[in-house]
């Protein structure tokens, strides 16, 4: 037992793998989650490999191993919008030029919408259709997340703007895929661009043109179980495999902490509380859990919608200042009031529910984990606005927090 006055959790927003297929333990080949990649090199050469999932990690695995494996089956449930990543090789001069902008970057990043250098600079309504298209093309050609988080903010709120940008991305994906069957399997049709996490890729779509790569669409015929020799889908087919890679994602935002038996006042359990309603005060503390500080948990941008390094730095600085404040006042305990937490949850929900994200199903809302209470996990008001609110609380002497 280790006694501590304060507990600061830095357990990660995407660190608790989400894996749940019956029969996994019976598989005779090699099976692992992308977040638990074996330490020794995995031998894919000539093997029959199945990858379950085509999100951020699935994409990286598929595009990397497609040319190496004997046969690859990709089990796709939800097609993803994606942006081709440029990933240029930087020279020493490039690196120096970048470093020379350090001061500018440290001043700018904390105040943009997502904590990246770029920010939303255009208003959809003010531009002609031709100019909008130019902006979209420019952002696309940047080979980064720019199209998502610095083209038009309206894509998060306005269904018509979102439909137009989604149409653009579908068109780009169709140009590369050519085969109508691949287009049906890999291009999203029932949700809008940017309402799920947008992965970056390199030659991911082209991997499906290889004769050794096959798609198994598991929307209509879901995976039922893992058998000793492969994966069984609901239609009764057993897909025989030597290696299974689970690119099935994470119990995001809450999973790392609910796997620890965290207890608060009167023995209340965080796991039980969050199994009913996922609540925090600014993602920094939870009412009922005095002296517990959190990073990268729900109801802050650091739960998914930001450049994490920018957001986490801001959170640890706020926590550091708060603890110093408690100590300089010769106090021992800090905890948000129920009213303050109610206020933050209401503010968070008001913004989140105005977005198109709230109308979708993805790990952004916890809908990948059965029984997880539904709420947009990430604060959608922007990194700059969030930071300002946190600073205001600190400047007010931590209004909304009881200290004794
Ligand atoms: C596929 C993927 C793509 C991502 N893409 C981006 C991106 O593009 N941009 C971005 O900003 N972020 C991205 N992230 C988010 C990424 O998680 C963060 O950028 C960064 O890793 C967060 O740092 P962290 O220290 O909060 O958490 P982590 O790096 O996840 O570290 C958490 C640590 O806590 C440990 N831990 C957890 N529970 C326990 C426990 N019970 N006991 C002991 N140790 C524990 C874990 O083992 C881990 O070492 C991505 C994450 C994933 C998985």
- Our measurement of the CA-to-CA distance between the termini, rounded to an integer number of angstroms, reads 25 Å
Describe the sheet with the most strands: 5 strands, parallel
The helix/strand series, from N terminus to C terminus, equals EEEHEEHHHHHHEHEEEEEHHEHEHHE
Strand content: 5-15%
Oligomer: single chain
The named CATH superfamily of the domain at 7-15 and 253-403: FAD/NAD(P)-binding domain
- Compute the number of strand runs: 14
Give me the side-by-side strand order of the main sheet.
Answer: 2-11-3-4-7
Query: For this structure, what is the CATH class of the domain at 7-15 and 253-403?
Result: Alpha Beta
Family: Belongs to the FAD-binding monooxygenase family.
Enzyme class: oxidoreductase
Pfam families: FMO-like
GO molecular function: monooxygenase activity
């Amino acid at each position: 037992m280790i006694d501590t006055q304060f507990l600061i959790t830095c357990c990660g927003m995407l660190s608790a793998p989400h894996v749940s297929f019956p029969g996994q333990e019976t598989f005779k080949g090699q099976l692992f989650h992308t977040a638990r990649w074996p330490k020794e090199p995995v031998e894919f050469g000539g093997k029959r490999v199945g990858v379950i999932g085509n999100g951020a990690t699935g994409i990286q695995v598929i595009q990397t191993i497609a040319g190496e494996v004997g046969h690859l089956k990709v089990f796709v449930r939800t097609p993803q919008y994606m942006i081709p990543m440029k990933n240029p090789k930087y020279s020493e001069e490039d690196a120096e030029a970048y470093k020379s902008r350090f001061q500018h970057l440290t001043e700018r990043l904390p105040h943009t919408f997502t904590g990246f250098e770029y920010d939303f600079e255009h208003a959809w309504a003010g531009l002609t259709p031709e100019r909008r298209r130019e902006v979209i093309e420019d952002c696309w050609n940047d080979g980064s997340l720019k199209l998502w988080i610095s083209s038009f903010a309206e894509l998060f709120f306005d269904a018509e703007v979102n439909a137009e940008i989604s149409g653009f991305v579908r068109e780009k994906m169709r140009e590369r895929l050519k085969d109508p069957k691949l287009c049906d399997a890999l291009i999203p049709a029932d949700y809008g661009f940017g309402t799920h996490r947008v992965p970056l890729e390199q030659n991911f779509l082209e991997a499906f043109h290889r004769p050794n790569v096959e798609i198994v669409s598991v929307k209509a015929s879901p995976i039922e179980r893992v058998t000793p020799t492969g994966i069984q889908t609901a239609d009764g087919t057993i897909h025989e495999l030597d290696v299974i890679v689970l690119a099935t994602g994470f119990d995001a935002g809450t999973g790392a902490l609910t796997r620890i038996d965290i207890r608060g006042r009167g023995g209340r359990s965080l796991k039980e509380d969050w199994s009913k309603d996922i609540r925090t005060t600014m993602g920094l503390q939870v009412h009922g859990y005095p002296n517990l500080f959190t990073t990268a948990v729900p109801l802050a941008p650091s739960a998914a919608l930001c450049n994490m390094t920018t957001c986490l730095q801001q959170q640890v600085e706020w926590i550091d200042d708060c603890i110093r404040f408690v100590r300089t006042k010769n106090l021992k305990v800090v905890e948000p009031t129920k009213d303050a937490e109610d206020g933050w949850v209401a503010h968070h929900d008001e913004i989140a529910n105005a977005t198109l994200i709230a109308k979708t199903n993805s790990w952004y809302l916890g809908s990948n984990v059965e029984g997880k209470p539904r709420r947009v996990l990430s604060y959608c008001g922007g990194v700059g606005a969030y930071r300002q609110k946190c600073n205001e609380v600190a400047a007010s002497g931590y209004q909304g927090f009881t200290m004794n």
